């Protein structure tokens, strides 16, 4: 048996040049991880090869080795990602997901094998997620890799972030070979998204009200002057 040291999901993804997104949803007690990989057939990788290239059993923790067995079988006392696959006609879409306790996510295979250093922690009501600023280390080992997107979603109020883009409550970081940047996110679980919306609307409404009052005052004053 050949022991594989890197997560096979990403190994196959990087070798074949297919696309993937790492999606994390942060709740009060969990980090729900979901990795989507879309792989279209070509002259080198026909559909039957694609289907068998993605293992059914990938351990969620980096401490558990990925063992190359044929047939693909689970080992006792090891927890695995849940795998789903969708036939796209000209390829496949694979999904690997698992819901981690926040306190366990520091040991998750995905983050441990993507960054040199990182920290996921909770201090009271504050959840913090940070990485080093050297980018993703997969680019050094796999020159074929062009881009990796990490999407983090939360319904809680985000006090700090350095995301490349934000769409509603989803924060996205895009990494390429030249990226030398970090992920930094600070979440307050005592406040939800609606709280932040109300927070900025109140001063806006007050300002608009003041402007209207001033405008009405000027109109009435102008009419009074005209009568005189």
Question: How would you sum up this structure, described in words?
Answer:
- The protein is an alpha+beta fold and 228 residues long.
- The chain has one domain.
- Helix content is 26%, strand content 37%.
- The chain is built from 5 helices and 13 strands.
- It has helices at residues 8-16, 47-53, 109-112, 138-141, 193-227, and strands at 2-4, 19-26, 30-40, 66-68, 82-87, 91-101, 118-123, 126-131, 148-154, 156-161, 165-167, 170-175, 184-192.
- The strands form 3 sheets. A 7-stranded mixed β-sheet has the order 5-6-3-2-9-12-11, covered by helices on one side. A 4-stranded antiparallel β-sheet has the order 7-8-13-10.
- It is elongated, with a radius of gyration of 25 Å.
- The N and C termini lie far apart (100 Å).
- The model is unreliable at 1-7 and 195-199 (pLDDT under 50).
- Keywords: Membrane, Signal, Transmembrane, Transmembrane helix.
- The chain crosses the membrane at residues 200-220.
């Amino acid at each position: 048996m050949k022991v594989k040291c890197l997560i096979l999901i990403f190994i196959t993804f990087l070798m074949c040049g297919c696309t993937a997104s790492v999606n994390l949803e942060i709740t009060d007690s969990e980090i729900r991880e979901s990795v989507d990989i879309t792989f279209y057939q070509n002259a080198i990788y026909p559909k039957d090869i694609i289907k068998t290239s993605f293992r059914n059993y990938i351990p969620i923790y980096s401490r558990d080795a990925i063992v190359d067995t044929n047939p693909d079988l689970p080992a006792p006392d090891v927890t695995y990602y849940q795998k789903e696959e969708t036939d796209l006609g000209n390829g496949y879409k694979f999904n690997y997901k698992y819901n981690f306790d926040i306190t366990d996510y520091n040991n998750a295979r995905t983050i441990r094998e993507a960054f040199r250093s990182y920290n996921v922690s909770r201090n009271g009501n504050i959840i913090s997620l940070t990485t080093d600023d050297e980018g993703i280390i997969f680019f050094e080992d796999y020159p074929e890799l062009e881009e990796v997107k990490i999407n983090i979603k939360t319904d809680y109020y985000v006090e700090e972030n350095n995301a490349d883009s934000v769409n509603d409550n989803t924060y996205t970081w895009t990494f390429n070979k030249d990226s030398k940047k970090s992920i930094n996110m600070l979440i307050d679980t005592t406040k939800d998204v609606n709280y932040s919306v109300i927070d900025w609307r109140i001063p806006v409404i007050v300002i608009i009200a003041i402007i209207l009052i001033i405008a009405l005052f000027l109109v009435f004053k102008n009419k009074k002057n005209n009568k005189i």
